[in-house]
Amino acid sequence: MKILSNKKWPALLALALTGFQLAYSQTPVPYGGVVGKTLNDSKEWWPEPKKAPAGAPNVLWIILDDVGFGATGTFGGVINTPNFDTLANGGLRYTNFHTAGICAPTRSALLTGRNHHYVHEGGFSHVTMSAGFPGYDGRIPADKGTIAEILRENGYNTFAVGKYGLTPDEDATDAGPFDRWPTGKGFDHFFGFLGSATDQYKPDLVEDNAHVTPDGRHLNEQITDKAIFYLSRQHKVAPDKPFFLYYSPGATHSPHQVAKQWSDLYKGKFDGGWDKFREDVIANEKKLGIIPQNAQLPARNPRIPAWNSLPPQERKLYARFMEVYAGYLTYTDHEVGRLINYLKTSGQLDNILVFVILGDNGASKEGTVHGVINSKKNAPRLTKEDAYLKTNLEDIDDIGTPQASTNYPLGWAQAANTPFKFWKQDANSEGGTRNPLIVYYPKGIKQQGIRTQYGHVIDVLPTTLEYLGIKLPDYIRGIKQDTLQGTSLAYSFDNAKAPSKHTLQHYYIFGSRSIYKDGWKAEAAHHPDNVELGDFKVGQTIPDQSFDDDVWELYNLNEDFNERIDLAKKYPEKLKELKAVFDEQAKKNNLYPFIDWYDVYHLRIHQNYKK
Predict the structure, then answer these.
(1) Which domain of life is it from (predicted)?
(2) Is the bond leading into 105 cis (omega within 30 degrees of zero)?
(3) Can you list the domains of the chain with their CATH numbers?
């Protein structure tokens, strides 16, 4: 009789310890042993457990929500973000980096390294914000694996905390199915919320594959504690095994909720208003070298009144909105600091590759002209914009508190996006899609400073893989993988003057669209800027706007980085050329049929459409 030798037991134990990972991968591997009719005729074989390259760095991706290019002090804003400052000062500031223009599309592109329509996330995964077409069904295909799946295939532990935003509504109950939850997309553990937004004190909280009861603390504190718990637990039992952490707070998406100790830090700091804020920020941005020295502010949006034209009670109200927002952002920076401090004290900070994306889109226009409080203690409240002012003045003390769902007024959104025009949802504009990026890696980045190379959120995944020396697996869970679409930014880490390698990029959100190529950009807004979805009620007809009626503009971003001078009439052939390129990209990436938020809202809500 042939006896299984004792030397096999360590292999059996190792296989057991990595069994879940191997079962998860299901990558086709030919059997390397011999199977005879009896054990004596056979030769055992065990697949080698997946291991990361020796000395592979840990990886930390941080993405904030609805921040705005000119908000953080790290990139010239007047809101204090000292921990982001520290990371940026020890690494790289990318000032020409772009997102998709709204949360779920940006996050799907980030996690897959592919354009958001290409991975079916042209809108959202919500029932009311998705449609039954390849670019819009809100279900990322299995052949377009996430960074978590890729790194897990290569021996990393993978964790996510905070906002996920990519699980279809109908799958988001404790009955599943769970293949589109974070744990079904490569994360070993998840703690956060599955939707696009949540109350920060009473979040719709999930851990792994089940909803859990929040403990009453601010969500930022809870997700940071959980992240540290995951990392410390792993570090104790497997200190040489690298990890990937996706840290994605709901901040600073509405509702803006934060303890008074943070918002009161900014008491009186914004009494000068949004016009002064913009002037101060553009001066700071020039001083830091974030923007060109000859840059000028775009005109104030016509929907926004001049600050000095407002009566005192309105100034007091609007200033309080911004005090809360600023406190919320500084508090979020503080929680990131707690995470960074853990990494430092545990000896892991020197060997970690960190990407910080300061916003998944531009600052939010969803707070309307007067801001939104929606105090729960006084619910139901009026929702039409012309009634906001009266109710907001009554509810001023509720701004930022747990009993309110707060978002600041439009004037602060434009201010937070300084020096760009427009805001979140506007995929046609740099104000909707341009967000700061920080890259930090003490072991690998020796030439700190500013980088101006064109980048897009799809570039972060290939940059990470190149720097780790990891290739995209041919198979994940037995499924052949599609190619990546992003361009690695690693070439620019040590060369500030390297020419951009990402030279072509399209954008489309809710009808607004644009195409960038070699420094030129053609763009078209769809719905007029003064149309807000919240202005429409059930049964009311939403005005149609033909895509053929949209007006295209043309900008040379090499000379006019913040889109002040429309060259469409001066260079009609260039505009025609770029529109043709956009059409090519639209066909390639599932942008057709054109569909926007208003169309979907009308279809789902006004006609009570159900899938």
Answers:
(1) Bacteria
(2) no
(3) 1-50 (no CATH), 58-604 (3.40.720.10)
